[in-house]
């Protein structure tokens, strides 16, 4: 299960120990709700590495645990389910089969709602089942890799969001999701991959807040760029090794030489931008593309650095949803 802010365990590290992977996913209202759905399915399918995985739980309509539990509009249930299928899910399951008459989950939607078989929800469920039956031949097929990728590293997530750091406002997963949204907005398909994934074949790899970088990972990222790949690292990356010990000599630590830059001090902010840095070029070949972005040619590829983070507009309230009869 990799949805939401649940990060107590390094799920990608379990992949070789299990027979199949499963995810529970429930859409949360907001401007990135559908992007997050795709992001979460992507992040489940890629660690599975082509092996079977299940959408173990999702809802036919409203849940019962959000402050306001919005019902799904016509077509949204099928769209949610088929998004997971598109990312390699071989099973689409729901919670729950029959809507409870009593107890804490009696207001949680189900395949067979309180209204019974003569209901829009039940008809939508049976229509989805019929559609999935026509797609049976694609079960077990591997996804075609994208040309771009976003690295997600649970250990960097843990380390970057510890207390006693420059800012408690950084959100690792939100940074990764915003990059995913940016790719979608430009019509670019991107894989969301664990940090140990072979990067060969990706033209562009973004490593958001890759805070924990052991020497072996540094060497692998360097080899990727030298071999023709284009790496993008962000602020607060490369800071510590696998023991959470700071790489000395200036930031971004382990990635300093690869990026051709040096930062002496973190400069978080109280408002907007949320984070910024004074970046010094250490290699004359390093270009300044924008005030917050540098790029250094590396072998046949490149290594770019994004040193700032603006307050995300993603927390704005979503627009009112139209009522359809």
Automatic annotation (TrEMBL):
Q: Does the keyword Hydrolase apply?
A: yes
UniProt keyword Hydrolase present: yes
Locate the Glycoside hydrolase family 42 N-terminal domain: which residues? 5-134
Entry's EC annotation: 3.2.1.23
Fetch the Gene3D superfamilies from UniProt. Answer: 3.40.50.880, Glycosidases
Query: The organism sits in which domain of life?
Result: Bacteria
Pfam families from the entry?
A: Glyco_hydro_42, Glyco_hydro_42M
Q: Which CDD domains match?
A: A4_beta-galactosidase_middle_domain
Ranges where the Beta-galactosidase trimerisation domain occurs: 146-272
The reaction(s) this protein catalyses: Hydrolysis of terminal non-reducing beta-D-galactose residues in beta-D-galactosides
SUPFAM superfamilies on file: (Trans)glycosidases (SSF51445), Class I glutamine amidotransferase-like (SSF52317)
Name the keywords, alphabetized: Glycosidase, Hydrolase
Q: Which PANTHER family match?
A: BETA-GALACTOSIDASE GANA
The record's similarity note reads: Belongs to the glycosyl hydrolase 42 family.
This protein's name: beta-galactosidase
Lineage, top ranks? Bacteria, Bacillati, Actinomycetota, Actinomycetes, Micromonosporales
């Amino acid at each position: 299960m990799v949805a939401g802010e649940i990060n107590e365990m390094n799920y990608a590290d379990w992949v070789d120990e299990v027979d199949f992977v499963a995810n529970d996913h429930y859409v949360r209202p907001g401007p990135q709700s559908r992007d997050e759905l795709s992001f979460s399915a992507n992040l489940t399918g890629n660690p599975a590495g082509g092996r079977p995985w299940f959408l173990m739980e999702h809802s036919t309509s409203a849940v019962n645990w959000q402050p306001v539990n919005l019902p799904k509009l016509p077509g949204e249930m099928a769209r949610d389910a088929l998004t997971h299928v598109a990312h390699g899910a071989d099973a689409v399951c729901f919670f729950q089969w029959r809507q409870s008459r009593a107890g804490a989950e009696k207001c949680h939607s189900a395949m067979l709602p309180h209204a019974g078989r003569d209901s829009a929800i039940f008809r939508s469920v049976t229509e989805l089942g019929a559609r999935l039956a026509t797609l049976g031949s694609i079960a077990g097929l591997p996804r075609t890799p994208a040309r771009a990728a976003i690295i997600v590293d649970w250990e960097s997530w843990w380390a970057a969001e510890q207390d006693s750091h420059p800012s408690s406002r950084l959100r690792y997963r939100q940074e990764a999701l915003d990059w995913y949204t940016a790719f979608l907005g430009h019509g670019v398909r991107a894989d969301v991959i664990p940090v140990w994934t072979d990067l060969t074949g990706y033209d562009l790899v973004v490593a958001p807040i890759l805070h924990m970088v052991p020497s072996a990972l540094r060497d692998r990222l360097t080899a990727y760029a030298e071999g023709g790949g284009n790496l993008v690292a962000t602020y607060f990356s490369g800071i510590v090794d696998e023991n959470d010990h700071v790489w000395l000599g200036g930031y971004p630590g382990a990635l300093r030489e690869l990026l051709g830059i040096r930062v002496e001090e973190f400069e978080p902010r109280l408002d907007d931008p949320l984070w910024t840095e004074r970046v010094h070029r250490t290699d004359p070949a390093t270009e300044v593309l924008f005030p917050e972005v540098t790029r250094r040619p590396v072998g046949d590829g490149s290594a770019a650095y994004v040193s700032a983070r603006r307050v995300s507009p993603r927390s704005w309230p979503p627009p009112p949803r139209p009522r359809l009869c």
